[in-house]
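**Paired protein data**
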Amino acid sequence: MVGAAALAATGSAVAAPASAQSRPPTAVKGYRTKLVLLGTAGGPVWYAGTDRVGISSALAVGDRYYLIDAGDGVGHRLRASGLGSPGKLVGPLDTLNGIFLTHLHSDHISDVNNLLSLGMSNGVPRNERLPIPVWGPGNRGALPPLFGPPPEPPVVAPDHPTPGTVEMIDLLVRAFATDFNDRARDNRQRVPDQMFEAHDVPIPPEYLDDPNGDPHPRMSPVTFYEDDWVRVSATLVQHAPVFPALAFRFDTEDGSVVFSGDTGTSDNLVELATDADVLVHEVIDRDWVEQQFPEPRSPVDESIIQHLLTAHTTIEEVGPIAERAGVGTLVLNHLVPADAPDRIFRRAQDGFSGRLVVGHDLDHIGVGARTPRR
C-alpha cells in the first residue's frame, strides 16, 4: 500500500476510528463458481480491534481454485475456507490451480514464501496440477522516483533493485535453500521448481517503457492464461509509483470476476470490468486519511494525503466506477482502515445501482446461477 510508511511516521497509522464489527462469514451453497474472500485488510498495518488479515482472495470453479494475492495469513484462511481437501497433509493446496499477484507490495505477497515452503506439507505434492503457475508483474526496470526532499535513502540490493515475479520467486527459493535442501534430502520432499513455475504477465513492451510515468498508460486488456476452467486477462492500473500494478479478470462459464488490485481511478480497469458479474475492488476512507494529518497541515502533509488518495480509490469514487463498468455486484476488499465499521464503507452504494458487499474474511459469494439439484 503506497504511503503506509509515511502514515506510520506520523504515529497515527494504527489509531482506530472505531472497532470493526465482526459478523459471521457469508456462506453460499449450490454454486459451481464462487468468490472466496480470504483476507480483506488493506495495507501492511496489523490492526487491533478487527479479525481481518492480509489481502488475499480465491476464485473457486468446480473442484479447483485460483489464488489472487497472498498476504499475511493466507494459509490459515485457506484452511478455514473449505477450499481443497480437509485432511491433514492432504489439503488445502491440493486443488490450487494457480497464483496471481496483482503487484509486489509486501501486503500482497508476504506469504508467497509460505506457499512455496509450507505448501509441501499442506497438499501441494498431491496436486494434479504441477507445477502450479505463479503469475505476476515483471521487473519495473528502474527505481521509483524519490518522494519528498533529500537525502535519498540507501538502495536495497543495488545490483538488482527491482526484481519481477520470476526473479522474486527464484530469489526466495535461494534464500530458503537450506530448508528446501534439508527436506528434499532427509524427507524426500520435492523441491520448489518441481511444484511451482513463475511467469511475468506479458504486458506489451510499449506500455512498460516509462515505469515512472504518471498516470499509467492507457491500454486494453491482454489475455495471458487459459485452462479448462478459466480465461484470465490483465491490464495496468494506477498505483504509482508501484509499476507494473495489475488488475485481473477471470472469465468462466458461469460468469466473470474482476480483481482491481491496488489502484486509483482507472479507465483501464473500467474497460477490463465492463459487464462483469462481480468486481472486487479496493477502497480507502478519505476522511480517515485526512484525520491522520490534523490542520494546520504542512505542504509535506498535503503531499502525502494526495499521494495516498491518487494511488487508491476512495469510498466516494468506487461506486461510480462500478456503475460505469456495468457490473452486477461490487465487493469491497483491501479496506483501509481495516478496523472501521461496515457502515463507513456502505457509503460506496452512492452512485452504484447494483448489489454492494462490504467484504469480510471467509465470505463466499456465488457467481452465476445455482447448479440445479438432482
